[in-house]
């Protein structure tokens, strides 16, 4: 968790953006984090898009946030095991957490599968002609 510090009027926009990114990494949604820090949507994205370091931190924070969905799923599993929550209700919550994880970090948790394969064209007629030509060459060598 990040240290809690007071937000002052003198904080720069970049400092506010860093605080938003830290809150996102801790599991808070972007809109809630921006509201808490007091930076608007357009200003936040303007600052992040203009700074390579912040862009990288923001991307890593979104990945870290996705891990909190997995943590929540594990906590719900424990509640079901303890009998504190109905399995049907837990299934709805877990499905929602899985959906969010897949949408926010599809590379790790997405359902999309990518298959790479190489296909070579194989023409039987061309192959037959090449083999026949080779046979004729071999026969003509034998005659000489």
Describe the structure in your own words.
This protein has 7 helices and no strands. Helix 1 crosses helix 2. The chain has a domain at 13-112: Arc Repressor Mutant, subunit A. The chain has helices spanning 13-25, 30-37, 41-49, 52-82, 87-104, 106-109, 124-143. It is mainly alpha-helical and 144 residues long.
**Main beta-sheet annotation:** none
Mean pLDDT: 83
The CATH level-2 architecture of the domain at 13-112 is identified as Orthogonal Bundle
Q: What would you call the shape? A: elongated
Give the CATH topology of the domain at 13-112: Arc Repressor Mutant, subunit A
Please estimate the helix content.
over 70%
Number of helices: 7
CATH class of the domain at 13-112: Mainly Alpha
Provide the succession of SSEs.
HHHHHHH
Uncertain stretches of 5 or more adjacent residues: none
Keywords:
144 residues; Arc Repressor Mutant, subunit A; mainly alpha; 7 helices; 72% helix; elongated
């Amino acid at each position: 968790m990040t240290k809690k510090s007071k937000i002052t009027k003198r904080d720069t926009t970049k400092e506010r953006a860093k605080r938003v990114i830290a809150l996102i990494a801790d599991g808070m949604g972007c809109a809630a984090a921006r509201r808490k820090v007091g930076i608007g949507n357009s200003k936040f994205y303007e600052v992040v898009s203009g700074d390579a370091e912040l862009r990288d931190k923001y991307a890593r924070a979104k990945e870290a946030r996705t891990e909190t969905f997995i943590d929540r799923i594990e906590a719900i599993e424990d509640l079901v095991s303890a009998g504190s929550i109905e399995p049907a209700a837990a299934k709805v919550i877990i499905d929602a957490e899985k959906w969010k994880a897949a949408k926010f970090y599809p590379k790790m948790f997405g359902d999309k599968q990518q298959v790479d394969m190489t296909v070579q064209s194989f023409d039987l007629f061309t192959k037959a002609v090449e083999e026949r030509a080779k046979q004729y060459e071999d026969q003509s060598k034998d005659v000489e």
